[in-house]
Amino acid sequence: MLVDTHAHLQMKDYKKDLDEVIKRASSYGVDNIINASFDLPSSRKAIELTEKYDNIFASVGIHPHDAKMLNDEALAELRRMAENPKVVAIGETGLDYYRDLSPRPVQKKAFEKHIQMALEMDMPIIIHNRDAHKDTLEMLDTYSDSLKGVMHCFSGDVDFADKCIKLGLYVSFAGPVTYPKSDELRRVAAFVPEDSFFLETDCPFLAPQFRRGKRNEPAYVKSIAQKVAEVRRMSFEEVAKIATQNAESLFGVGYAGS
Question: Which residues does 43 contact at the CB level (< 8 Å), separation at least 6?
């Protein structure tokens, strides 16, 4: 059994065939899916999907691209939504210095607000980090004794992974771990302790190599698990079990019916 710990099924990419996508995921052994949100509309839609599908859960938050939209009113709405029992995390939030669609000081302020909300509500946080390793670590280090969360779609090296794990964070592997040139990411996948990693698709983005350039979907988390198993020299079943247990530990979303 597998958990896709980071999907975006609320996006328009799945408007025409969402039922089929979810059924296909189940046929691949993907029992539960966490829909991560990136703004207020996607947070609302993610919650709507949790009401329609028993095996879908949600996070609520505002992506660093839209950090400038996080005013007091938006923060209050996120808090209200986070009280829903099928909302299992805050985010995705963090820093993105690759596109810089919101000014960096604004990104930092929004990230801080999400961190504070996660702590106050005793919820894990889903962290987006792109080309912002130093600032991300500096902000998280302040809360290392109390914050719990995951560095989603991990993109750093072994040293960065080690620092994240020492802060008490999980790291999550997505489609890029299957790409031919991602040798460093595969070194990370071989390095991380068993109790420190998840699997995700980040769909509809970043499809694994066998579907690269096409729409991604939760069923393909199986391909990611197979690659992680290969580099860790473990069986697929072992990796699937470990990753699912880790998802259960952080999000309370693991084996079907749990």
Answer: 37, 58, 59, 60, 61, 78, 81
Candidates 139, 224, 137, 211; CA nearest to 177 is 224
Q: H-type helices in 128-208, by residue range?
A: 133-141, 158-166, 183-191
User: What are the φ and ψ backbone dihedral angles of 115, each rounded to 5 degrees?
Assistant: -60, -45
Full DSSP string of 62-80: --GGGGGG--HHHHHHHHH
| Angstrom distance (rounded) from CA 41 to CA 157 | 33
For the chain, what are the domain ranges? 2-251
Indicate the angle between helix axes 158-166 and 183-191, nearest 10 degrees.
30
- The tens digit of pLDDT for each residue in 60-82 reads 999 999 999 999 999 999 999 99
The per-residue pLDDT for range 144-175, each reduced to its tens digit, is: 889 999 999 999 999 999 999 999 999 999 99
Task: Provide, for the chain, the percentages of residues in helix, strand and coil under a 3-state DSSP scheme, each rounded to the nearest 5.
Answer: 50, 15, 35
Model's pTM, two decimal places? 0.96
Q: What is the CATH number of domain 2-251?
A: 3.20.20.140
CA dihedral 75, 70, 172, 98 (to 10 degrees): -170
37 Cβ partners below 8 Å, 6+ apart? 10, 43, 45, 46, 58, 59, 60, 61, 91, 92
